[in-house]
Structures are given as structure tokens and as C-alpha cells.
Amino acid sequence: MRTPRAGLARASTRLWESLWERLWGRLWVWLLLPWLLVLAVAVLEAADGLHGRVAHAGSLLTPAPALAAVRGRPRDVLAVSAAALALGLATSFEPATSETDTSTTALVSLVVVSAASLVAAGARRRREGQLVRIRQVAEAAQLALLSPVPRRADGLRLAARYSAAESDTLIGGDLYEVVVHPGRVRLIIGDVRGKGLPAIRTAAAVLGAFREAAQYESALTTVAGRCSRAVERCAREAAGGFGPDTRAEAEELFVTAALVEIEGGRLRVVDLGHPPPLLLTAGGCEPLAVDPLPPLGLVHGFTAGWDDDRGLTVHARWHPGDRLLLHTDGIDEARDGRGRFFPLAETLRELRGVPTERLPDALLEAVARHTGGRLRDDAAVVAVEFTASGAAVAEVSGEEGAEGAEEER
Length: 409
Description:
Strand order of the largest sheet: 1-2-11-10-7-8
Shape: elongated
Largest sheet: 6 strands, antiparallel
Helix content: 40-55%
Strand content: 15-25%
Distance between the termini: 70 Å
Number of strands: 11
Radius of gyration: 31 Å
Number of helices: 12
Oligomer: single chain
């Protein structure tokens, strides 16, 4: 049970983390601080010199190189160290006012700290360069794993966004893909159980199977079957690994997913343990009525004859201006500091006027405000709008199909 004191402690922690992130992001602050310290010592020594006193404040210069090394480059640290040493030497020649003169000790400390700060700044710069290269590789991997969705396809407007729970992570266990085929568009959104490299490897396997099967398989359930077998292969490979927990993790490997096929004004959905797609209309927001199946990787053991359309797809019709929203559980299961879930339906009603291309971003921003900027799980959103041009194409296709049926008769 959460107590007010625990909630206050968490809020204070988040506040300090937010302030630290903002302070860390301002490079000029860290470059200005050591120079302000050197200037303050110089003013103090000059003021005491005018009054015939000797401050011997050189020991205050010791932190200056360390402050410069926090964010500065080695040459910034070298400049601050040189200025501090020059000021320390200039003030060390003044006669001491006590029997114990600490100016020599202060100068030695300043030299040691300056040398250590130069080494630390150089090492930090090298690590930052490595992180930049790693981030570039991660961005390339993200583009390979989650390729950008087309903005328009067959009379549809599409937009998709992904947000990782870890701010420094670009890819994770959530997945989505859009495959455009002449006359139809197929989509998948899913969430891999677990995190880290095994989740990314499984997501890549599912997306690879979907991209291939969505192009050539005629039935949407057959596409889902190909994806499920890909998860099953990943589980078998994981079971052959080393470690005491490998077999248990392999047995529990699965992917919740929703597959959607859009063909004109008709929707076909296969839901595999995933939050059902939401249909946004002028009248409100309603989840599509689906018969959920077990997740990918587990469905083989529960469902027989699942490579056909018997009872495994949901057919629905929509109209121009209607939008379909697919999301992972990182959206509707997001909680605030009091443990309250994110009000997805209410938020979507408030975002009714947001254009489709902005809807995923607006929704993720609303989730971030609800959670205080801290997601506990990855989140993916795909929005699809059925436009008037798509309705026209659907009508033409329907008329052609009816004419063909009459000719056959």
C-alpha cells in the first residue's frame, strides 16, 4: 500500500532527477563555473591586497580544474588550470601572516588536481565518442527493425511512433510494420515478452516473417501462423543456450500481437492476446469486437486448423474520416504516481481534432504527462485514417467485383 510519505519521496526524487538532467544539458553552465571560481579568488586577493592584508585563498582554486572536467574538453581544462596556477603563483609570493604558510601545499594540490582533471576529461571525451558511435549503430538497427511507415497508401493516411521506456534506448521488444500490397494494406503491432537482446532478436524474427508472408500469403491467419512459427523457432534456439534460466525463459517466450488487413472499406483483424485495435469515429472511440487467440508462439498448442479464416478474423466496415489506432500495453497500462492507469479512451476523445500524422506523438505526450515523464514499459502506436479517396477506390473495386460476379453467373 502506498503511503503519502512514499509518494512524496518519489516525487522529490523525480524533481531532483529532472533538475539534474536540465543542468547537465547546459554545457555553458559547467564551462562558466570554474571561471567564476577563479574570478572570485582573484577579486578576494585583490580586495585584501588593497587593505594591506593577504588572504592566501589559493586553496579555493583547487576545485576549478575538476569543475571544468565535468563537461569541458581537455583544452578547456588546460585553460582553467593555467589560469588557476598563474593566480596561485602570483599570490604565493605575498608574505605569510602566520607561522604556517599553506600556499605551497595549495599549489601542489592544484597541480595534482589539474593533471587528474586533464586525464579524466580526455577519457570522458573518448567514452562520449564511443557512445555516439554506438548510438549511430542503434539508430541504424532501429531503422532496420522498425522501418518508417508510408504516410499514404491506397487511400489511407498512416503514422507510427515508438517510445522506449529507457531514455537512452532506441529499440526494444515492441514492434510494428506496414506492408502495402496492390489493393490491400496489412499491419502488425506486437509486444515481445521480456526485454533486452532476446526481445529484440524475437521482434526481428517476427517482423521478418511478417514482411515476407504479408506479401505472398492470401489469408491473414496464414500470415499470423508464419509469425507464430518464427517465435517458436526463437524459443527452440533459446532453449539450446547456456545458463540455468535459459530453458525456463524459452518456454515462456511469446509475443502478443494484432494483425490487421485493410482492403477498401473492410477491416480484417486477428488478435493474439493483444489490446484490440480502437476505431475512432465521429461518435466516439470503441475497441473492435475480437475473439482473442493465444499469443504468437503459443497459439499452435491451443488452436486447430488456424491457417484458414474460420472464426479467426473479425470483419468490420468503416467510413471516410474514421481512424484505426493500434497500440501496445505500454499505453493503456501506464500509471501515474498514485497508481492510476492512463485514461486512454478519454484522451483519444480529447485528441479527436488532432491530424492523423500528429496523433501518435500527441498520444505519447499525453502518456508522458500522466506518468511524469517516466515510462515503465515500451510503447508503440500506429494510426490509420480511411480517407475519401480510399472510399472511392473501394466503391470502384466493389462495382468491378459485382460485375465480375454477374458475368460468371
